[in-house]
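Protocol step 4 of 6: structure prediction from sequence.
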Amino acid sequence: MNTFRRFLVAALAAGLAVSVAGAGCGSASPSAAAVSFPTKSVTTGDTTPVLYGDPIKIDRSDFEKELKALNDNKQLQAASGGSGLSGAGKDTVDPRLAAGWLTAVIYDKLITHEFDRRHLKVTADDTNAAKSQLSTQFGNPDVANAFPKWFQTRLVDRNARAVSVRAALSGLDFSDDSAKKYFEAHKDEFSQNCLSHILVKTKAEADAALARIKGGEDFAAVAKAVSIDTGSGAKGGDLGCNPRGAFVPEFDKVAETQPVGQVSDPVQTQYGFHLILVRERKSADYETAKEQVKAALNAESQGAFRQFLQDAVTSVKVTVDQRYGTFQPPATGQPPEVIPPKVPKPNTERTDNVPTTQPLPGEAPGSPDSPVQKIG
């Protein structure tokens, strides 16, 4: 699932800092956040209050252990520019990372709740898909491999539950047998168009090139003479054989519909004007199209999964330890997520007499020069 990567990438900008030194004081089992799911609604007069079950807690020390795993990953640090995960003080992380990662863990609670409600079980195919996702969700397999084994296992487990829920919601699964059935039902979508084109800057130039071809000149010769796409032009306009969706939509539409052996009228795209020649259409076999088939299955399953997440996050009640920020609810019209705490304003910009080293309601301790929030 791409949710973790999306929130991680959004969290890399430097700003504040949250300690990952460990949760020392406070209650025996403090929570980083809690998610309460609705149980039923009771109508009283004109109102229908929602009743919520016991909150599902995200253990703070466990969450900080994950933050530490992120912060200690040198490969991830390098990918973020060398210090994009760390905060201003020792043993701290950027609170945008903390808020983003906490959002991801909250969404995992929504997925896990649905996984349990449906009495689903993770299959070997789910796990294999989850491992493949882990190798790419941080942008580089080396980053995932640099995490401690316990953290890799945890991320695979989360991804596998998400794959399982997504399959249940969409009615699709990602097994090889399912992919083969999908391929047989949509075989035409995976055919390949073997194309040549001529690219010029203006419509007049395209009309002139088309006139030369209609007058008997060889397409490849004209392409070599006038095409501004120097890569394909040197090869007579040859673009090779490509699946549907390989080019910009305007180009792709003509590539799909143009009769084989006929040169198209000029087609305008952001790059200029094209003359397109479909030399051949190849029927795909499953092994050749396997990755495309799985990508198509993935895309088809995403719609139902996104809708589930939107509905789920709207129905629950989320509370967040204010050291990590506040949860922005769907009613705001913004993406539901944890918003990191703000940097306290300098004394010269304050309208109260509270020193900047003291927390304001909803803000975490710190100072404008060193906004480090110590935990515990």
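Step 5 (inspection) to follow. The radius of gyration is 27 Å.
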